[in-house]
Every structure is written in C-alpha cells, then in structure tokens.
Design goal:
Distance between the termini: 24 Å
Number of helices: 17
Structural class: alpha+beta
Strand order of the largest sheet: 3-4-5-6-7
Bound molecules: zinc ion
Strand content: 15-25%
Order of helices and strands: HHEEEEEEHHHEHHEEHHHEHHEHHHHH
Largest sheet: 5 strands, antiparallel
Number of domains: 2
Number of strands: 11
Length: about 400
Amino acid sequence: MDLAYLRYLGICADEPLADAEELASPDSLASDEVLFESGNLRVPERLSNAFFEVSFALCSVAPPCFDTTVEPVLQGEWRFQILGLDVQAVSDVLSAMEVLKDLSRRDFLAGAALPAMFRAVPPAAVLCRIFALAQVHGFNLVLPGHESSQEFVCCYFDAMCLELGLRPHHFAELYAMSEVLPGVFSLHTESRLVLGSSFLRFQEHYECSNPQFRHCSFQLDDYKVWFRNKSLLGFNFYLQWPGFNVPSWVLDAMRSGKVGFPLRPQEEAVLSTVPPTAQYLIGSCEKDLEVLHHEMAHGLYATNETYRTAVLQQLRRLPPKRTEASKRQLLKMGYVDDIQILEDEMQAYMVEGKMLYEEDELECSTAVEVMAAIHATFRLFSKAAACPSW
Ligand SMILES: [Zn+2]
C-alpha cells in the first residue's frame, strides 16, 4: 500500500486522528439498549444512521471482547462483520460511525461540515476507516461475497449511486476543472471513488490491456467481471489509481457512443465539464504534486511535439536492458503492451521521480542522467503551467 492510499484510508491521516476521536460523545449515539459500559465508553446493542445499521455482541467479558455487524442501508446482501474487537477498537468504530449521525442520504457524496478525511463520500470514508482499523489491529473481517475490503467499498459506492438515483449534476458539483497547460485540462475531485468511477470507461477505452475493452464499446458491469477475475483483491479499480489521463479522441468516442451508451451520470458530468476545445484531460484527487506532474507529463507528451521529441531522445539513451526492465514493470502493473503507451508511461514515471527498477536490479548511471534530463525538460515546458485550484 502506498502512503497516499493509507492516507486515504485514514491510517496516515493528514489531520490528527484525535479529530475523529473527539467526535465520539456517548450521549449522541443513536442507541437502543446499552450492552456495555465502562468509564467513558458506552457500547449500545445497536445504533443506526442514514447509511448503516450496526449491532454489537459481547463475546467475552474479561477482557471485554465484541463482535460487530455492519449492515449498509441498501438493497441486497451487504452485511459484514468484524470479530473479536477490543474496547479501544469498539470505541474507534463508534467514533467513526458518529461522524454520520447528522447526515441524510442526500449527503452521500459530500459532507461539507465534516473533518477533511470524512468530507468526500462520508459513508465510504467511514467504511475505509473501519476497515483500516480492522487491518491495522488484525481483527477478523468477514465480508461475504467480496474478495477484499477495497472491493466492498468500490461496489458499495456503485450500488449506492444507483440506489440514490444520482444525476450528472451531483457529480459535476464535485469536479474542479482548470487548464493546467495549453489545451490540457485537469479535473480535480476529492474522492478516489468519484474520480475512479468517473474515469474508468474513458481510461480503459484508451489503454486497457484487454482487447475486449480497449478501443471497444463496453459497459461497466462487463468490465467488472473481467477485473474481478484477474485481481486478487477483486474489483478495487476506484481505489487503485490516484490519477488518469486521456486524449481528446477518447472524449469524442465517449460523446459519440463509441464507448457505449448509456453513459453513466459521472461520465455525462465529465463531458459537460470539460471544454469542447480540450486536447487532453487529466484527473487527480489527492493533493499530491507528484501525481499531478505525472499526469501533466502525459498531457505535454500528447500535445507538445517539441517536448515529446526531446523526451524520446532521452529515452533512446537508455541501455536496452534498462528499457526492457521498465517495460516489464509497467506490464506487471497492468499497462497494455503497446510501445507508445509504455514510452509515454516511462517518461511520466520519470517526471514523478520513479525509475521503475526491477527487484534486485542495479542502479544504472545513464538512467539517472536520463531521468534528470527528462525532469528538467518537464520543468522547462511546464514553467508557465497554471496551478490547479486545490
Ligand atoms: Zn501514467
């Protein structure tokens, strides 16, 4: 797991974790009977909010140990359990759920008044926090029908968007669009779920490694079936990638129906937000400059002939062994075996400061020089870049 993802999950919070803990106030729990009380901690048998029904069972008394069942308020089988929680973990689960107490289902995508880590898609952020707690403390997580907590969060997000009947304008409100380089537009949004679900069909029409989807018409459900079968963690696409990049012909393909109608609301929202003159669209969520620069490097590579020529000249200096190793790394990450896409990714990763070494590969001094030269070229060409509106 990378740091950005841990931060997303709430393990490495931008803000002190205490912010969330302070929200826990025993008086404000929507509880029925009290199951357990000790000091400041009061554990109800059940609590509910607009998104979840949670129940606790005491499985041992000394020391106190609890099983928790969480049922999303959503059609279908979504129940999951965390078994063997200690007092601290139960307190953490209560604190996380407390975040949702004043929200209605209309606040599914955004809770403006919440602490930053819960503001974007609050119920999913709460789920991520609870799953992160279970993972960090090694509690037993029982997720029937899902390969991983990441898959659960991604599928829960899709199911809630459907159940709530979310419309394009609900998503458009979450996007900040800015022209970061001439003709290159950046869509920024706070949540990886919103970003990933907005970009999935655009990105995979452009460069999916499966020819059944790349340059083809397909719907999300078919893609999910394929992805689920190839990934150990199931369908975790939305949480996997922090950034996206597509040339304008992909936007045209989506507009004209070549990617397949119907469009999903978030796709319509992207098309209505990006100016028709855009030559390239990038997407990012975390306020992470490395990710933004990686995506901007794709934008420059596609739209600026002089930049592309200079960068390709540098890439040609790499020893063939080094180039092949980088390509193998990219293929392992899931990129399509297309030399143009792979060269574009190599330069974008170098701009981000990543050399794509294989395990046990020795550092290559020419590659270090090439990366420095590509980085300097990027700096030169992006000097006049506009700052995104974070
Ligand atoms: Zn890339």
